[in-house]
Amino acid sequence: MSHNTFGKNLRFTSFGESHGSTIGCVLDGFPPGMPITPEEIKHELRRRATGRSKHTSQRREQDDVQIVSGVFEGVTTGHPIALIIENTDAKSKDYSNIATQIRPGHGDYSYWKKYGIRDYRGGGRSSARETTMRVAAGALAKKWLKKQHGIEITAWLSQIGDIQLQAGDLSKIDDSPFFTGEINRVPELEEFMHKLRKSGDSVGAAISAKAVNVPAGWGEPVYGKLDAELALAMMSINATKGVDIGAGFDSVAQSGSVHRDEIIDGEFQSNHAGGILAGISTGQDITLKVAFKPTSSLRLPAQSINEAGEPVTVVTKGRHDPCVGIRAAPIVEAMMALVLMDHGLRHHAQINSNQHTFE
Amino acid sequence: MSHNTFGKNLRFTSFGESHGSTIGCVLDGFPPGMPITPEEIKHELRRRATGRSKHTSQRREQDDVQIVSGVFEGVTTGHPIALIIENTDAKSKDYSNIATQIRPGHGDYSYWKKYGIRDYRGGGRSSARETTMRVAAGALAKKWLKKQHGIEITAWLSQIGDIQLQAGDLSKIDDSPFFTGEINRVPELEEFMHKLRKSGDSVGAAISAKAVNVPAGWGEPVYGKLDAELALAMMSINATKGVDIGAGFDSVAQSGSVHRDEIIDGEFQSNHAGGILAGISTGQDITLKVAFKPTSSLRLPAQSINEAGEPVTVVTKGRHDPCVGIRAAPIVEAMMALVLMDHGLRHHAQINSNQHTFE
Amino acid sequence: MSHNTFGKNLRFTSFGESHGSTIGCVLDGFPPGMPITPEEIKHELRRRATGRSKHTSQRREQDDVQIVSGVFEGVTTGHPIALIIENTDAKSKDYSNIATQIRPGHGDYSYWKKYGIRDYRGGGRSSARETTMRVAAGALAKKWLKKQHGIEITAWLSQIGDIQLQAGDLSKIDDSPFFTGEINRVPELEEFMHKLRKSGDSVGAAISAKAVNVPAGWGEPVYGKLDAELALAMMSINATKGVDIGAGFDSVAQSGSVHRDEIIDGEFQSNHAGGILAGISTGQDITLKVAFKPTSSLRLPAQSINEAGEPVTVVTKGRHDPCVGIRAAPIVEAMMALVLMDHGLRHHAQINSNQHTFE
Amino acid sequence: MSHNTFGKNLRFTSFGESHGSTIGCVLDGFPPGMPITPEEIKHELRRRATGRSKHTSQRREQDDVQIVSGVFEGVTTGHPIALIIENTDAKSKDYSNIATQIRPGHGDYSYWKKYGIRDYRGGGRSSARETTMRVAAGALAKKWLKKQHGIEITAWLSQIGDIQLQAGDLSKIDDSPFFTGEINRVPELEEFMHKLRKSGDSVGAAISAKAVNVPAGWGEPVYGKLDAELALAMMSINATKGVDIGAGFDSVAQSGSVHRDEIIDGEFQSNHAGGILAGISTGQDITLKVAFKPTSSLRLPAQSINEAGEPVTVVTKGRHDPCVGIRAAPIVEAMMALVLMDHGLRHHAQINSNQHTFE
């Protein structure tokens, strides 16, 4: 049917549709004793928000998140933390003319085939609106990882269309709407987006990310590997088509003598592994890259069918991002945080569980 | 600690180490009523086996699989199917000289950091020996998918080092040890491998795969998406570093008007989506690609440390594949089969669950 | 930490504290296509509500449930159904004087020891307020079971203190606040409760329940047995101390020749098994009984400690039921419905999964 | 279909049929670093074994358990521990005459209805033979609980037919085949069993159990409560019909002023709660009681049907226990150990996860 929970020891469950009254999530398994405020969550939500620049959808949601459970006197209690946001700027009428149309490249076709019923308003459950709750929950996971282990997670735009971008100065990624550390290339990106928007077309993007200070030993072989669960997490984000861990697909053409990260004087000499060996963290930076496909909702007409199977020409006039990947950086960070915290909690279980002094 | 179960409705649990007495698995949730024989499983095991050609490890396991439960009078009963194989050609002495060495690029470092104890014989639990059981269980899933839905899964070598390979004639992939349908290029591959083996180095590989005849509607949004669970499955295989679904990373540079698969006369005009939209199958071929890193065990010396933290030079003399990816095709097929069957069973639950005639 | 999800294919997750702003739940895995209205849910909530009679807590919640996701144009979509209720009559000041006291027989002691932090207002997360959401979700499961399979579930009061009650006319259980089919004994129960309330003390209760028309074949051996999951469900309800399936503890003194339910002319001659053999339904009525302990919150003083470990005398003045078991019947029904629907969905998976015609 | 895994962080999966070649289990999530030997497991298996006295089935299995994975040089590695036992004394011919008969009170009917196929030999998967593996895995959990926390678990016979037994001297329970601490009443029990066996009939039994030294704070509200998971565990054992926690069903007739366990001078004055409040351990003894139904396999004829629906008279001549509950004590101990260790591991996760020093 559907499966809306992610994680094992830290379990995140989201609910809500793009144009429903409310979206929300439940974060279960979060330890007691950590102070949290709605403002900390809103800080992350603003990073993800639409309407931040002219390059993203102009839907403007307040994302006024409420913490409705699991926190008492400002501190987590160990009980499920429910977060809810009321949708305020859902313009369902934008979609009424395409209620029975199957938009190419969207979940319309597969949802219709699977469920026989479809909330067509803005993609319903398949909308990226759902990722708001990932970012909200991720804000709590990021705080815990930072406080408990000094872990910091950063995601940045590393490719848009055929433009490649380096990490640059990652402290600058929030200074532009492009989540790039190559801040001097922002004008180039602005120009690129300007032309793209005029063309009516869209492009894909790649987001790279890293987590620093992850302790060695996190990850559960062989079906709860850290890299495998990161791949699951990334591929669960809307519009993703590929995931690299460390050197990723580039490792295919590498030789083993180059790829294997040698250790000299106790220091790894490279990090092609992306900080993960055999599914377990090594203490090096965890690095990954995620491919996002181009937006499918375009004002350029596309051939498709309607629910009656008749040919239709689909033209989308709603508010859409010409490159959905631009805003994906905070979502990638959030999912990385949820995966890492989940593994951190599992690893903590081991620490006190095998210090035997057997005779 | 460890997490050795994969799947939700069809649950696969494996156990055993490379040089332990026995490896095995339990496949739980398999429907009753399907005839199976050990020979059908052995057929798939032989496709994966080492020692098939001079290009793979020379360890020769009989892989004499026994079905010890869940089958009565040759037919599945609906109860857990346990499969076991006794290890017969485990040469543990090969490894004794490196018992305390940390081999670069292997799980030695991370296992040691995590567990504080390590079965160093042939990689212990982190060895690809474990994938034998995936192939064994996958043989049953493949049969069920074929019989119940006509689904067929094929994986082939699409890149080795910097050599790109097309699908070619996929009916020929078992005719060479390279799992390639470009059968006329086998001499070129032989030559490549010959030089590689002489160099003492290794290379990575990419395996592509497709499943045909998967019905539309399989997959569970939003955290049990078909593509996300395929990514988890692929990234759980030893030595994987990347996963593409459909156009994968190539979709980053595509324009939306190209990527979205338009429908004319009821037919999709392309399949950049890889048969999955919003996490649910569309009825098109499911396509994916997996990156395998180069083998790390080389006779070329590498700098590393031992468990005392002292610098050591590691030279591996055991029996290893110069390109582990070559043999990965049957493993990719098996994992694809386990994921698809799991989703098939979940989807079947829906079929009889929502044919309401409500007034 | 905490684990707030119940069920495998139908997953129910609840959140919220007794005196928090909002309580709610997410019901994931519900099939698409079933019409539901808030009014249907409210009907069940009123059956459970406090303040219905003078024998229950006088807290009066409107329980104005909102369906905030998973339903489109009045019909389920197959996506997570989130239900939320705002708490309106939470009188937290009632509890301020006992903020640091450990009330005997409550979760105060164990929550304090586990979490080190405690929402003392009305029991916080450990309050029976949480069961409101079970009843809400159970209303949907009951409807599905009825429509899809004709299954009906009824729970009634079978013991209160030392008063034993027969099933009587179960169509009458909603005619009194006692959930009894022995409607002519209501005056006796009123008298009993009157004396009890005057005494300041409390008593326990037993609730019996049955489900009729459950098809044979539901249940998953050996760790997803129908009876075992019913026991888990019942024992998860606040204040429960025991569960009987079928003849339950009475079967200890039975002889095997009596207990085993013989079949004559195709009909079971008795139902000591409670409709479940080896964890799987037989098609007979599913029957069970649940023991509820007496309310621990009394105006009669009790010796205890505070969080500083100092001796205190606890006197509870809040609004409490002198017999919590009285209102438990709808909760037992709801949990039974959630378990049965979960198993129904799992069973449906099998129906289409093993109709092989193998040659 | 079937669900053969128990536990969340410590996951136990069993496989095998009564008269299959092999039974076994996989214990996943067990911490590294604990020495174990087959002999320690065999010690517990002998306590459960049939053929120990004339009061139990005369099937004599060697139960020569092999540890085939997860242990290296005698010490657990943190990887899945697989245990297997080859069946040696399975006399399948005993059952051939009843291959198509539905034995009343057994899983024959429900398995047949569910699966349409049935391993009729000795009950197949529904046989109590499966509990051998629970006891084997339980032996490891008991050792861990003892070493890590000083926890000790003891189960004893507290009722057989209508004979009630006190705990007596629990250090003596292994001195007779009756698992009773009332060692002076063994002659009475012998006499009772002698008459019972002559009658050809059977009786039920109740097993009581306690765990001492369980730390406060174990258990996960609200759907992973310690008592609820104990109830699930107990009800998953063959032939169980009821579970009491603490005062259990007796609490129905108790008054609240008696039931609630007051604290004077820091000491609980009673333990009606059975060591669990709101699903979390209090540090008091965990106490429970389990009801076992009488054996259904009797030489006394019973009316039933065969798989063709025709009336048959069933007479069972195989080797059966006249009171299955007698041997259940070690199984109850094992399941209690698995539940407690699972919760212990979950609790350990919390210990290092919330010691924040937030400014």
Automatic annotation (TrEMBL), chains A, B, C, D:
CDD domains: Chorismate_synthase. Keywords: Amino-acid biosynthesis, Aromatic amino acid biosynthesis, FAD, Flavoprotein, FMN, Lyase, NADP. FMN binds at R125, S126, S127, N238, A239, A278, K293, P294, T295, S296, S297, R319. Homotetramer. Pfam families: Chorismate_synt. Belongs to the chorismate synthase family. GO terms for cellular component: cytosol. This reaction introduces a second double bond into the aromatic ring system. Its cofactor is FMNH2. It is an enzyme of class 4 (lyase). One of its GO terms (molecular function) is FMN binding. Residues 45-57 have a biased composition (Basic residues). Pathway: Metabolic intermediate biosynthesis; chorismate biosynthesis; chorismate from D-erythrose 4-phosphate and phosphoenolpyruvate: step 7/7. Reduced FMN (FMNH(2)). This is Chorismate synthase. The lineage of its organism: Bacteria, Pseudomonadati, Pseudomonadota, Gammaproteobacteria, Lysobacterales. It comes from Marinicella pacifica. Residues 45-64 are annotated as: Disordered. Its EC number is 4.2.3.5. One of its GO terms (biological process) is amino acid biosynthetic process. It catalyses: 5-O-(1-carboxyvinyl)-3-phosphoshikimate = chorismate + phosphate. NCBIfam families: aroC, PRK05382.1. NADP(+) binds at R48, K54.
